[in-house]
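User: We ran a pulldown and think these components assemble together. Before we commit to crystallization trials, I'd like a predicted model of the whole complex to look at. Sequences follow.
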Amino acid sequence: MDLGLSQEQKMLREEARKFLSKEWNGTKAREAAGSETGGDQDLWDKMVALGWLGIIIPESYGGLGLGFVDLGVLYEECGRVLIPTSFYSTITGALVILRGGDEPRKQDYLARIADGSLRMSLAVSEPQAIHDPAFFQTAAVLERGQYTLRGTKLFVPDALASDKLIVAARVSPKSRLEGVTLFLVEKAAPGLEFTPLETFGGDKQHEIRLDSVRVNPESMLGAPGEGWTVVEGTLEQATALQCAEMVGGAQRVVEMTVQYMNERYQFDRPIGSFQAVQHACADMSIEVDAARELTYQALSRIDQGLPAKREISMAKAWTGETYKRVTLTAHHLFGGIGFSREHDLYLYSSRAKSTELSLGPSDHHLGVVAGQLGI
Amino acid sequence: MRYDFSEEQIRFRDEARAWLQENISEEVKAEVEEEPMEPQGPNAKAFLKKLAESGWLSIFWPREYGGKGLSTVEQTIFINELRRCGGPPLTLTMTSVVPTLIRVGTEEQKEYWMPKILRGEAEFAIGYSEPNAGTDLASLQTKAVRDGDEYVINGQKTWNTFGHVCTHQWLACRTNVEVAKHKGISIFIVPMDNPGIEVRAIECWGDAITNEAFFDNVRVPQEYLIGERDRGWEYMRIALDFERIYIAATGRNEMLFENLLRYCADTVIDGEVLAKKPTVRHRLARLATELEVHRLLGYRIAWLIDQGQEVTKEASQLKVYASEFRQRLADEGMQLIDMYGQLNWRSKWAPFKGELERAYRFVPVEKFGGGTNEIQRDIIAQRGLGLPRPDKVIMGLVKKWMAERPQ
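Assistant: Here's a predicted model for the assembly, 782 residues in total across the polymer chains.
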């Protein structure tokens, strides 16, 4: 048992914090959110130069070959300042390729992700199915040597910011339980139609209609029917990483709140000297510290190759509730000033709700935990 | 970074578990069930003696006092195993007095008391609280006055748990009335066979017994003042950090949850296995997650102590979390087992020997004992997060108001 970060990880954290505090802030986050893709090319290029896109990619494919704890450290720092989400979406794409791609595919795509020239997103959810592959309806039909994709994907993160999408479609539409297969689809492919969704978090998610999109058989990622195994495993990893982002955001909100409680005077004294306020802050700190422990436990188990399904779902169930509750408590403690859109707080509150819901809300993950209890 | 145990730690845990399973007899378990907090039956006593003689209690002590210097993480593993195997809880002597003595006692005191403690010849009750000094502990009035080579102690303590069975008191007394109230306290060890001590039992809701203790001209040698004179407040804070950590040991909650889980998996009511009901599964999953948090906060503290870090904030966080979680576990567990939840632990119908209802009745003391959870939240906010101390803020205001007052 060693619950601390290594020297290298502490350095990574420090460097990331220094870099991000210089390069990113609430004003930039608002600007990025107002753009079509939600991104910021300058920040992206600098993150690429730091090697961040390749952290989890093995050295043989042009990455840094580090682990999930390292990447989690980075996500935590990114969560503190609310960077554009296409970073997370592209890394999820890299994780899919790592898990499901063959050797040439890995050589090609992973190197391009690491050097920043390829952005990706994973398109899984559909109007009538979010977590259960048995109900996915998007179909891939083999016609004259090519696959034709038809269906609708929903809640696809950063679709417009991506160069390529990984689309889950069923190659044998007759069976509900099998056939889910992954396809790599160019964003510019004819027949793809993107409609932005107006979301709570202001992040860029899309409805994607696939209206007879034709792709070569080489676009298939992994073997037919093996798509769900890849998606499931990847989403677990992405969930653990997202928890780290959420811990970072929640921690930042605690710090902002404590600072303001020290600065805001009423009745001639800082309101942070009132016990009602102190206890609310104490509860926040317990919940966020617990979220961090659950999250790094999950990440370190992934690194060690230990089973982590239970730990990941516990982390997400807890962290989702925590990030949200911390922002709501902060809104109450800040009062009017925190309610104003001039203040950054609402950016965190929006992201908190959005991350609580994405990759499975608390109830979904408690269901997974129940399944792991052996009852 | 790794959260699971190392191979060595697993070996240690398995070794401890094997030894405990072999040595905790059914008779011991029965006595622990009868008196979960301070089992006094002959078998439980004999077991604790054997535990000490076999070296299990001192392996965490520094080598110079007969220990093997094992880490706090290992100690936590051991304590959790002890509770999981149905063994008696370690007393505050082991969990609070010893680590404090190691840190603040003089060399002579450590050499004198540690072997005595290990032989079971010194078992302590903690004498801090008084009728007028509860949460405001620094107001305590029990006095120790120097008289030649001795101190003479007069006063009254309350909530003196173990007072009726201990051999010694670990007693906080006022030794200086000339200074601020928290700067004039010292810690004494007081043998119970000294003349002038009277103990009266107080029966509690959770079937536990605590006591009032009266000290009437009780004389102790000056060497029984621990560490340095007037530094008792500081020592109590150290001792209370340790007390909080062990109040919060995870093992018994793990055991309680596992019993609840097994019961829900094996029990059919109204034609359905309890654990098949979606509402039951949901509650169990939530409790499992909360238990995991408890476990992680517990090991985090142990690990931080081993890194040589101060853990005041973490000890308070753990104490608040663990006590409030245990209350939820007992409360929700009783709801999960429906009408059976109300059965007293003596009833033959009570599922897993009524552990839940007893925990429910006992748990209030965990929320207010060892420093109320409100005080813990103050500590987290002020010492952990850097929010201002209200008393200092008010003192500043009073000075300002006085200065602004029209002449």
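The longest strand of chain A covers residues 146-157. That may be worth checking against your pulldown data before setting up trials.

User: Thanks, that helps.
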